[in-house]
């Protein structure tokens, strides 16, 4: 049984795919100023500014997780689409439409075949207007076992450990 930490479109963050350890959110609010002679600048609230979420974590594919999860997120980012972001397991936590601004990863502790046993990652999401959200939730990005029933490892096998052995 898998628990979903968060969903970006149809990509489910969790132990079976990609679990994040830290979520950082920064929201800007716009208050432009007009200079005035002999007085403090006048300010006016002009609405919401940038809203960004950074997810960071550590993936150790030989224990848990999908080695191809970051590739799936890169494909979603390359599509340029916006995806609905839902925290936890319910519609009560819909955070709006978000685009993937960047995906960073650092691999270490490599095995002889050049496959990292430890992958640190950082994912930058930026909020956009909700009407830009992808209607299919990103299902067309493919490569995610959460919505791709015929998922197989890179070498054609269906076992989680085959890439490692």
Protein described:
The chain is mostly beta strands. It has one helix spanning 69-79, and strands spanning 4-8, 11-14, 22-30, 33-36, 39-43, 47-59, 83-87, 94-110, 116-128. The strands form two sheets. A seven-stranded antiparallel β-sheet has the order 2-1-7-8-9-6-3.
Notable characteristics:
about 160 residues; mainly beta; seven-stranded antiparallel β-sheet; two-stranded antiparallel sheet; 9 strands; about 45% strand
Low-confidence stretches: 141-165
Strand/helix succession = EEEEEEHEEE
Query: Main β-sheet: number of strands, strand sense, barrel status?
Result: 7 strands, antiparallel
Mean pLDDT: 80
- Cα(first) to Cα(last) distance is 25 Å
Number of helices, counting only DSSP H or I runs of 4 residues or more: 1
Query: How do the strands line up in the largest sheet?
Result: 2-1-7-8-9-6-3
Mass-distribution shape: elongated
Please report the total strand number as a whole number: 9
Strand content: over 45%
How would you classify the helix and strand content by structural class?
mainly beta
Radius of gyration: 20 Å
